Amino acid sequence: MEVEGAGSGTGIELSTPVLERGGPVHTLLPVSCAWLVAATLSHTYTRPLMPPKASSGGAGGTSASAAWMSRLVCALPSHWVPLYSSDEHGLGANRFLHHTLAYRGPTLVVVAGSAPGGHTVTLVLASGQEWRETHQYWGSSDCALLQLFPTYQLVETGPKMLYLNTSIRGYPRGLRAGSDPRKPTLAVEEDFDRFHYQGAPYVLNAIEVWGCGEQAAREAQLDVKKWQVREAERQRQVKISAADWIEHPDRYLLELAGRPQYNNSAS
User: What pLDDT does 241 receive?
Assistant: First the structure.
């Protein structure tokens, strides 16, 4: 894999995340690529390991710094956790939303596609905050779009370059990324079966989403998902009127899950 200029703000002082072990095999973001991505992105996505201060004795400080550098370089790829894999959970917009929304932390969305003639491309879309559905572009200054294959490069970075809409009528549907809403650099169609990258069409082969936040963010997301399952089952058995639902305490939990427009079957 060739490596092109990754922009400013990179350096070895950024710690490389260790990809979570013991879970399902995720093939779109191998450890070697994780190192490159971590070195390119801001501290929002990584856990920097600060080097020890050099002591006045000279030799002691040099030894401590050398030990820290050795640990940094030789560490095996720990806190990036897999949230969604299309190979495991199925490829589709609803699957992406189910496994990605309500994760209150930075994420990496890895998109792999192929074009006629065998040309392939793999991209990483970095979001510094939780995903949400809206008809407007959003995102902090930590947002970034990177290309992993066939060459590695930082394509674009900046605020308000993310877009996700699967339900709001009258606006484009799908997932988009880019600083120009009229001509997004990446545009995934609403069915999550195809996408355009820099104007070229691709078949969407696979998507993975990695959570880059604290463990508490993942645990909170799992709690919300479990509650949603229980609530869906309860709604099948007990109908709540629209008036009662407005004042119902469970409505707040659904808002936390990113579904403030939840519609009850009886409403």
Answer: 63
